[in-house]
Amino acid sequence: MTIKPIRGSADLQAAKSCLARLLSQPNNAEYDDEIEVLTTLIEQFEEKSARIELPDPIAAIKFRMEEKGLSARQLEPFIGSRARVSEVLSGKRSLSIDMIRSLHEGLGIPYESLMARPSRGGEGGNISDDAIRHLNKLGFSLDRDEIPNFISASLRNTSALALHRKTKTQRAASKTDPGALLLWQAAVLQKSDDIELRRAFDRSKFTKTELRQVAKLSSKIDGPRHAIAALLDMGIVTVIMPPLPGTFLDGAAMVSTRGVPVVGLTLRHDRIDNFWFTLLHELCHLCLHYDILVDTHTAFVDDMEIRSDDTREQEADSLARESLIPANILQQVSWSSASSYDDLVIVSTRARVPLAVAAGRWQRDHQNYKKFSRLIDRSSVQALLVSDMP
Prior knowledge:
By secondary structure, the protein is mainly alpha-helical. It has helices at residues 9-24, 32-48, 57-68, 76-79, 82-89, 97-107, 111-115, 129-137, 147-154, 178-193, 208-216, 223-233, 272-296, 311-324, 327-330, 341-351, 355-366, 381-384; strands at 162-164, 237-240, 251-255, 261-265, 299-302. Strands 1-5-3-4-2 form a five-stranded mixed β-sheet, with helices on both faces. A hairpin with a 5-residue loop joins β3 and β4. The chain starts with 8 loop residues before the first helix and ends in a 6-residue tail after the last helix.
């Protein structure tokens, strides 16, 4: 048998047909050499010349619907209301991160197909010009053509899919631009590589005790700086990166290409109570869910305005609250809608946290953001960490 070089699509199809014939032979062992050579030629040509397009998300969904005999109504558990399903299938609405995850987990549609944007081409094509301009104002200098390599280099150990806080109604992150979020993650991880670690992270030694010690640093005047330094001593890098247009998040927990735990904070709500709760929440993900981050190569991305129904988010929320203000301290006062200023002073003193943190905890627990609002420090954290901002 004469095997010819593959120089174009016609040669490629001929080679594949020949390979199929050889593989279908009853005694194909005698053709092992030919099969190996053809396989190598086909793989090399496709890698260099034959870019295989993934189906776009709508095509992937419709293919799975046809395969499983599903109606549009049967997509509602994965996408949302009937109107939302209709908008997605007609191309009027893009898939949110939560929809992508639900469709993958529920219907087995590959992430790559659900994230594909064939009309734009490459990962950089999914990202708005506004997000790229905003990132460059933060100290980066990237052209659109450079975005795919930038993201690939920063996220090569991290999935494009982030684990968002979400509700049972799947409304979380419905306005989020997945491309801009991906760019933000890549920027945080790249900046983390520029920060020198003081020691390697030891998962076995990062426990609830360490979380409580970090929380107590909030009582210092420049507590955020002390916390960031203390975390470096534990092998954890903290990066301050403002949100990009199309992203709605307060923080994220990730693992870098170096295998280093990274906490990204946006400081979009410049409040001391928000800073400490977000920081502790992301650290709780590292304490409770570090194996998930490493094994699945993903990230926890958090919008703290959402009360999540996700078990992992609830676990991180609960431990973050306990780390800042232990439950036994709250039991010593009247922690109710009738709590007084003196009650908050007692709590903050005994928990060794700022009064603003106690006030923020009370507001969140009782869903009352008017009472004690004067105790909340605003426009304070960014000023303190200004030299750490990009």
